[in-house]
Write a structure and sequence with these properties.
There is one protein chain. By secondary structure, the chain is of the alpha+beta class. Strand 7 and strand 8 form a beta hairpin. The longest helix has 21 residues. It binds fe (ii) ion.
Length: about 300
């Protein structure tokens, strides 16, 4: 490429006076300007903002050469630990609160829809389809529970045919994909709401569990005096025609770590009682008592809102 074509294409680099001035006070401006020619305006906006915040951070903490090398090594090890089943970068995003912040921005409305929370790293795309009243576990251990629910719109009308994807940890805090001995689909289910928008299933009360902490994210938590635990919860993704899909959890009231979730996912409205029920008359037909019971009303917002 000729010098003149190079200057036309990469005009910012041709300004040698700019190069000479590269210093803590000017670096953000110089590097941000290098993205002035990005064709995608959103890429330009994001890259320039990232550069400005990143440079401000480096200046703020006075990052040393050895700390920079440590950070590169940390990110390299984080990447090396990622594969089809382990996503250490999502974990890093989770413990830094970025996952919940992105979720908060995406769902920042004043509507009466059910609160959302993080997806987490244990969702699979092929939960087994199940019928109303099915058990999502074949395990004989754990405290039996029944989850009843109803999917409605923000105006209160039931949403028949709504699809509810459910997954949870077992009574020891493990998901099926964390063990080679557990059959895939255990403690997962895909339910379709009936004509009244209702669904229900049998399960066991999940246990609190630590996020995977044998990698760089775990080292970061330990070095920071933070624990890796999440309070007991059941995950849901609910969707209905014409409505915004919702990704959320219900948290078991009284669980440990409700006030210190390692990934900041708890919202007060999502903490639900799992009461011990002895009167079978208050439950769907055929449920043996005593059993723990939780009801979850899922309110979805219309798409156009
Ligand atoms: Fe989870």
């Amino acid at each position: 490429m000729s010098a003149s074509r190079f200057v036309r294409r990469y005009g910012y680099i041709a300004d040698m006076r700019t190069y000479e001035k590269f210093a803590a006070a000017t670096s953000a401006d110089i590097v941000a300007a290098s993205f002035d020619h990005a064709q995608d305006p959103r890429l330009r906006e994001v890259a320039q903002s990232l550069v400005r915040h990143l440079h401000a951070f480096v200046v703020d903490v006075g990052l040393t050469q050895s700390e920079w090398e440590l950070a590169i090594d940390f990110l390299t090890r984080t990447g090396h630990l990622c594969d089809g089943e382990r996503q250490e970068f999502i974990l890093l995003s989770d413990v830094l609160g970025v996952s919940m912040l992105v979720d908060a921005i995406a769902n920042e409305t004043a509507s009466s829809a059910t609160d959302s929370t993080v997806l987490g790293p244990f969702h699979v795309v092929d939960s087994p389809p199940r019928s109303a009243g099915d058990s999502i576990t074949t395990s004989q251990s754990g405290e039996p529970c029944v989850i009843t629910g109803r999917v409605v719109s923000t105006t209160g009308e039931p949403l028949p045919g709504a699809v509810v994807d459910v997954w949870q940890a077992d009574d020891a805090g493990f998901y099926d994909i964390q063990s080679a001995e557990v059959e895939r689909g255990e403690l997962r289910g895909l339910f379709t709401a009936d004509e009244d928008g209702e669904f229900w299933f049998r399960s066991i009360v999940p246990a609190a569990y630590p996020i995977p902490h044998d990698g760089p994210v775990g080292q970061l938590l330990e070095a920071s005096g933070r624990h890796p635990w999440r309070p007991a919860h059941i995950h849901f993704i609910a969707g209905a025609v014409g409505h915004r899909p919702l990704t959320t959890h219900i948290f078991v009231a009284g669980s440990d770590y409700l006030d210190s979730d390692a990934v900041f996912g708890v919202k007060p409205s999502l903490i639900k009682e799992f009461r011990t029920v002895t009167d079978a008359g208050t439950l769907p037909d055929g449920v043996a008592t005593p059993v723990r019971h939780c009801h979850f009303e899922i309110v979805l917002e219309r798409e156009e809102a």
